[in-house]
Amino acid sequence: MKLFNDDDARMGGEPSAQAGAARVHVVRPAQAEPDSRVRPLHIEYSSTRVVGEALARLRRTHGIVSHDRSPLSESFRMLRNQVLQRMRADGHTLLAVTSPRAIEGKSMTAVNLALTMAADYDSAVLLVDADLSGRGLQSLFGLQGAAGLSDHLTDGCPLQDLLVNPGVARLVLLPAGEQPVLNSSELLATRAAQQSILEMKQRYRDRYVIVDLPPLLDTADALAFLPQADTTLLVVEEHTTSVQDVESASELLAPFPLIGTVMSQAREPEPGMRTPWYRRLWSHGRA
Amino acid sequence: MTALAQDFSALADPTALPSRSLRDHLGMLRRRRALAITVFCVLLAITVVVAVVLPPVYRSTATILIKEQEIPPEFVRSTVTSFADERIQVISQQVMTRATLLEMVDRHGLYGTARQRETSEEILDRMRRDIKLTPISAEVTDRRTGSPVKSTIAFTLSYDSENASAAQKIANELTTLYLNENVKNRQQKAAETTSFLDEELSRVTRHIAELEQKLAAFKERNQGRLPELSLSNQMGSERSATEIQRLEREILFLNERTASLQAQLADTKPQLPIMSAGGAVLDPDDRLKALQMQLSAAIGTYSSDHPDVKRLRREIAVLQAETGEQGDMTDREARRQELDAQLSQLRQKFSDDHPDIARVKRQIVALEEAPAPAPRTPRKPDNPVYLNLKAQIDTNAAQLISLRKERDELRNRLSLYDARVSQSPEVEREYLEIVRDMDSSRTRFRELRDKQMQAQVAEQLERERKAERFTLIEPPIFPEKPVRPNRLLILVMGLLLAIAVGIGAAAVRESLDRAVHGPRDVMRLLHVPVLAVLPPLVHPLAARRRARRRLLWLGVVAVVLMLGVAAFHVFYMPVEVAWYSLLRRVAN
After folding, report:
1. Which residues of A126-150 are buried (b: 16+ CB within 10 A; e: fewer)?
2. Across residues B161-172, what is the average pLDDT?
3. Hey, which of A206, B84, B464, B487 would disulfide with B51, CB 3.0 to 4.6 Å?
4. Which residue, among B509, B526, B527, B545, would best test binding to A if mutated, counting the most A CBs under 10 Å from its CB?
């Protein structure tokens, strides 16, 4: 259970051998306890709902980084470091994650980046699911039906009531909302929304906001939100995303700062979820 | 991330971006290896199946030599003059008729199941494709021009079949057909030539007979006017003219002679003079005239009752009765004129009362009153001179008549001759026409007869097979090895083709693919660094399942293969036999 650098003394958790071996944080079991120089950013979640089982749900999903030295984890650490360096250098706090078309890797990348960033001692992370159509990352946490951003924007629910801590230190999640909304792009562009986002950015020091946006070319939501984002990370799936889509995305993103791209690989579909080859060919040909 | 560093440097200088390196191509192949290998395997399998399954084709070939005429063509010229290849083509058309081929197919049961399945047209096409006729040419020097020409000296006839013995049999039959057809053709052609010439000859003969008849009729119609007689006609005409002239002269002479004779006759008394006392004996006429003169003189002198006058009158009457000549009218007229002249003379000298005048007047009256003399009763002349003259005159007259007749005849003949001569050009034209026709017909007849004889000899030549003929120098043999297919070649070509098409399919698939491959693509498009390349995610469950499935497939394939081999072994032929036969086939 105690995986994500959760070496909070009060939780009484012992860092595992793997966690100790993590390259980013030079944490050695022998030094860990008495050494006070290593002081992770500590946040008491007094007002935030803690949903412990969300982490367990997340763990069951394949492709989520874990506290190990698997290639996946390592590449996300690499990514995190680069992103943090660049954002810190530019003073950015809000990172929008999007992709040209709907791909499985986008939300996954957002979640993994958030988890990896949260594992960094010095940064707290707010992960916002801005995909208001409802099939975004909140389902990865098993939080279907939880109130979220759309409820805040439509009904004015206070943000602090909506935030969820999925059982990972320094990570707070803002779900998309209870129900899918149709006018999502208008909602995201309202003054209230802008105000909320500004509040999110400025509420805590050393907190990074990662917004999981809908695909850039499928809906107008992403474009509506982009002015609020400090910078953008584009996820491209190798062998799947077409050159044409990347070009279109590049044109759309031209006015906004782009931090870089992440190239993900097409996932082996889950057993039983495989689409027939002819349909794949067909959809591919059309793309 | 050294690759990334490279990419950065590449990004700094966009022109340095390499196009497609070998690594890209290999990467492409690796990405599309499933497709490439699938295509390769499928093609290779098809090739192998084709190479093994393709039925062997056996070919049996006959070589037929075109042998030249044995008798030198200078002596006997064949009536079949077409070129050998042309004839071979003609024979091919005759042999490869639907009926012949289909009969052969049915008799030998060729094309087994296809015969039941396909239309006879398709079967015929197959058969025609299987029959191959290849002329063998050689450079031959043309005897007349001395220039080298290509000439067909032989040809091969082959038949392809999946069955070696069938190939031989059919090739054999075809060869026989070709040989027979050639002989038949040649003989038929020669016979046709002969019969045609015969017919032609009889036609010309008929024509000549007609002409002869016509000529005969013409000659009959124009007898004597024929141009060949024209000279004789002319001569006849001339001769007749001369003859006529001669006759004319003779007639003239005879006339003159008759005239002189008549003069003589007139001078001669028919009767002999009566010898009187007075000496001179007058013939009755003269006495009558004399008496009449005495009487007229007496009338002048005396009155009519004078006894002298009376006596004179009686005497005259007797004489008149005797001579039968009543004082010739001419005599009387002459007398009258004489008296008139006398009277007019006297009137000039004397008055009317002059006794001379009165006498003359009385004489005139007496003359006028004198009765017309009674017809004289002829008296037979008895003067020999007279008779002689008379006879001569008569002869002359008779001669004249005959001469005149002769002359008239000659004149007729002359006119006939002249008519003939004048008509002769017209006749000659017509005549020459017929003769010319006749001549040309005769010439034609002779020519045709010569040709007919030649044709008969040529026909004989064909009948005895001494003319140019086809000789089988190599009969079709039983083919021991198939000519097709070259299995090894098919395999090698199939392998190469499979490789090429496999790679090609991958390349095509790749070119159809518009997806981004590798961080370089993204960087080129977005001009921002690729911060991370995530490793591929394989769900452990999926990986397990895939492994399981692969195992399952292998098992299924193995089982199917084994079952197949077992079935083959049991139902078709033992595996080891099949193996050896396969080896043999490949070796072939």
Report:
1. bbbbbbbbbebbbbbbbbeebbbbb
2. 88
3. B487
4. B526
Give residues 31 to 50 of B whose Cβ lies within 8 Å of A.
Answer: 31
Q: Which residues of A touch B545 (CB under 8 A)?
A: 271
Interchain pair A62, B540: CB under 8 A: yes
* Angle at alpha carbon of residue A44, lines to A43 and A47, rounded to 5°: 120
What pLDDT digit, counting tens, does each position of A175-203 carry? 888 888 888 888 888 888 888 888 888 87
pLDDT of residue B13: 45
The nearest CA of chain B is from the CA of A211 a distance in Å of: 18
DSSP structure string for chain A: ---SS---GGGTPPPPHHHHH-SSS---HHHHTT--S--------SSSEE-THHHHHHHHSTT---SS--HHHHHHHHHHHHHHHHHHHHT--EEEEE-SS--HHHHHHHHHHHHHHHHSTT-EEEEEE--TTS-SGGGTTT-TT---HHHHHHH---HHHH-EE-SSTTEEEE---SS--S-HHHHHHSHHHHHHHHHHHHHSTTEEEEEEPPPTTT-SHHHHHGGG-SEEEEEEEETTSBHHHHHHHHHHHTTS-EEEEEEEEPPPPPTT-PPPHHHHHHHHHH-
Q: pLDDT tens digits, residue range B82-102?
A: 777 788 888 888 888 888 888
Condensed to tens digits (0 to 9), the pLDDT of residues B95-153 reads: 888 888 888 888 888 887 888 888 888 888 888 888 988 888 888 777 777 777 777 88
Average pLDDT over residues B529-542: 81
Q: Which residue has the higher pLDDT, B559 or B219?
A: B559
Q: What is the CA radius of gyration of chain A?
A: 19
Would you say residue B224 has pLDDT above 70?
Answer: yes
Sorted by sequence, the CB contacts under 8 Å of residue B410 that are 6+ apart come out as B240, B243, B244, B247
C-alpha to C-alpha distances, B128 to B154, B159, B399, nearest whole angstrom: 21, 9, 109
Average pLDDT over residues B207-218: 91
List the single residue in A247, A250, A260 with the smallest CB-CB distance to B530: A260
Task: Spell out which residues of chain A touch residue B536, defining contact as CB-CB under 8 Å.
Answer: 265-268
Confidence of residue A30 (pLDDT cuts 50, 70, 90): very low
pLDDT higher than threshold 70 for residue A139? yes
| Among A261, A269, A271, beta carbon nearest to B528 | A261
**Across the interface, which of B518, B525, B543 has its CB nearest the CB of A250?**
B525
**Dist CA A267 CA A275 (whole Å):** 13
